């Protein structure tokens, strides 16, 4: 509905402009045909810009809708109480969206139960105790090697010229492909957006992360990491820290919200230097452990959760392709309320 209203407003603007052309021709002493021709020539660029804006708006709507659906699905899977057609809420769903030109896929694996999350019903003293546990939690503390290792292994696959970028985007299967840990949710999450063929994009993502031939051998996985790609991943991780360091808004936000993270380091600069040292000290053995423990299960049909938002016309084809190629049964969901 938001996208329809957006497009409608643009169309009304064009109608108003065209309606005023005849009046404008009298003011500038230019014939109506000449003015119309000039308007058309200048309007081509305007329409191109509007098309880009409309596509951007549509993508934002699709991504938000997908996130909302996926979050609700996670909630239902965790509770294990909601049913669809008398079965447990499915781990793999596809949602048709008429306004979508391309598909968006989010695939995740829950690697941490988040048992430290606060229970709103307990006393304030108990909450303080659990908050202390949360701050020292190795999966979410930015100072822990587990957290840094998970971030670094995701950078290995997702950074520019990394495997996901070069294979998935490089072959034109998706505009964007990334692998990111979500420490708050306890998830390792693969995102493929603007997929013209989502099954192909997912297949290439498997190849990028698990190695060539992964479609045929479910247990196949990389046995070593590329030294060049790892250097780029470390550089990308560190560059992100330093870039934040020189952003005034980030510095202000950090002083207000992240000061507790600095702990014994006293200030942001010392804290950042400690992180950089830790990033450089992570060994390949640690990364391979994180890869096998947290990344590989993202592609395991028994443990993964998949949500796809697809153009309505491609839903049946996508369901068939995922079944034939990966043995994944996608459940078609017409609305979030069905989850």
Question: Could you explain how this protein is built, in words?
Answer:
With 339 residues, this protein is of the alpha/beta class. It folds into two domains: 1-79; 90-338, Cytochrome Bc1 Complex, Chain A, domain 1 (2-Layer Sandwich). 56% of the residues lie in helices and 14% in strands. It contains 13 helices and eight strands. It has helices spanning 2-19, 21-27, 32-79, 124-135, 145-158, 163-169, 198-210, 227-245, 248-257, 259-262, 268-281, 284-295, 315-326; strands spanning 83-84, 87-88, 92-97, 103-110, 174-182, 187-195, 304-311, 331-332. It has a six-stranded mixed beta sheet with strand order 5-6-4-7-3-8, sandwiched between helices. A two-stranded antiparallel sheet has the order 1-2. Strand 5 and strand 6 (187-195) form a beta hairpin. Helix 1 packs antiparallel against helix 3. The radius of gyration is 25 Å and the shape is globular. Residues 118-140 are annotated as: Disordered. One of its GO terms (molecular function) is metal ion binding. Residues 118-137 have a biased composition (Low complexity). This is Peptidase M16 C-terminal domain-containing protein. InterPro entries: Metalloenz_LuxS/M16 (IPR011249).
